[in-house]
Amino acid sequence: MQQDSDEFVSALFSTLGRQLKAPTTTIKSLESTDNMVDALFGLEMEERLECGETDAEPVMMKKEKALKLVCNITKDTNHISEGITIGLEGTIEKNSDILGRNATWKKTMKINRLPKYICVQFMRFYWKLTPESRDHTGVKCKMLRPISFPQVLDMFRFARTNLRPSSRNADLILNEFKDKKPEATTAGDAEEKPDVDMEGLSAEEKEALEVAKTMSMANGRASAGIGLPLDFQGNYELFAVVTHKGRSADSGHYIGWARVKDDDWLCFDDDNVSPCKTEDIQKLKGGGDWHMAYLTFYRAKN
């Protein structure tokens, strides 16, 4: 039986997570995690549930962890960002204590903490029911629709709102404030002038300025996630792809593609390794019998 590459990655993460535990001495880079897999690939998600049939039902919030994002594929999906969004938004049927019955709830998920590396799985394989067949068990199918993916992926679009400005705009606001701040002519004048002149700044700018000041005084502590710099802009660079070739979900061939540097890549077809370029990677979006992306790996871009 052919091993699905996503199943293999999940098993690999699980095994490494059990083996690569934090030693007795504290490693700052691991922060609140207890193993290297969670520290490098772990996403913290914030889930929000709102009842769509009554405002009397309180909003439910919870946090959960994940080691990958999923790109859902529908007849209208064309880009990896659209597929990820589908998985983060939707509706579910859930009991409402206020209504005393099942009701429709709106589910929204946002990223609460970003890792240094992000794995995105394309939902290429699905189960199709076959009610007219003899055994009625259904059949496993493959979605061939082309889904484009960029060389640089902006992850802040999927993050909670107050995570984005703290990292993206702090330096910008701080620099703008420095331009507005009047220069002192003498040492005495410098002592008399206040450090911060809030006049002329909007409430949003004032809040961003306070964040910028806090970040400027921080000592190596990442705001967006473990190991990420304070001025992280939320951009991730594509550095590896796992593709599947073939129309059948139960057969075909998996190949690995890894970036060496800039536009130079290597294609790993079993024991045959050959060079390729970024333009070759762009052709892996699917839509036919050629290799199509099944797993993509991104790394934080400084």
Approximately how much helix is present in the residues? 10-25%
Q: What do the pLDDT scores average to?
A: 81
Structural class: alpha+beta
Topology-level CATH name of the largest domain = Cathepsin B, Chain A
Give the number of helices: 8
Please identify which CATH superfamily of the largest domain we are dealing with. Cysteine proteinases
Rg, Cα atoms, Å:
24 Å
Quick tags:
alpha+beta, 2 domains, Cathepsin B, Chain A, 302 residues, 4-stranded antiparallel β-sheet
General description of the model:
Strand 1 and strand 2 form a beta hairpin. With 302 residues, this protein is α+β, with helices and mostly antiparallel strands. Mean pLDDT is 81; it is low at 183-196 and 215-222. The protein has helices spanning 5-19, 36-41, 80-88, 164-168, 170-180, 187-192, 203-217, 278-282; strands at 43-51, 60-66, 69-71, 89-96, 101-113, 117-122, 125-128, 139-142, 152-154, 235-245, 253-261, 264-269, 272-277, 292-300. It folds into two domains: 5-159 and 231-300, Cysteine proteinases (Cathepsin B, Chain A); 163-217, no CATH class. It contains eight helices and 14 strands. Helix content is 24%, strand content 32%. One of its GO terms (molecular function) is proteasome binding. InterPro entries: Papain-like_cys_pep_sf, Peptidase_C19_UCH, UBP14-like, USP, USP_CS. This is ubiquitinyl hydrolase 1. Residues 1-301 form the USP domain.
